[in-house]
Amino acid sequence: MFLYLVRPLIAYSNPNIDVIQGRSVQLSCIVLLGNPQPTVTWLKMGEKVLTSDRVISDGHGNLMITSAEPEDEGEYTCVASNVGGNVTYVTKVDVQGN
Prior knowledge:
Elements: E1 6-10, E2 16-20, E3 25-28, E4 31-35, E5 39-44, E6 47-48, E7 55-57, E8 62-65, E9 74-82, E10 85-96
Parallel strand pairs: 2-10
Antiparallel strand pairs: 1-4, 3-8, 5-6, 5-9, 7-8, 9-10
């Protein structure tokens, strides 16, 4: 059996997202390619995003922030990884006051 290693490839999405304070926002990281299946991790300002009652990662590339607060602002990096390599995509979230 021959195994092909394919480095992950992330689809382009909106690099800047504005959300009104108190509203929900979903960040998507769509992995188009990768063999073996890449794992997806989210970072905020270089630190791994920890899930909480307001921040939920579905493990498939989606990150949901409910009831956005000013501390949710910043750069979120999606990292898709497998043995073929790593690829990243950055989305900037800006929380607008009510």
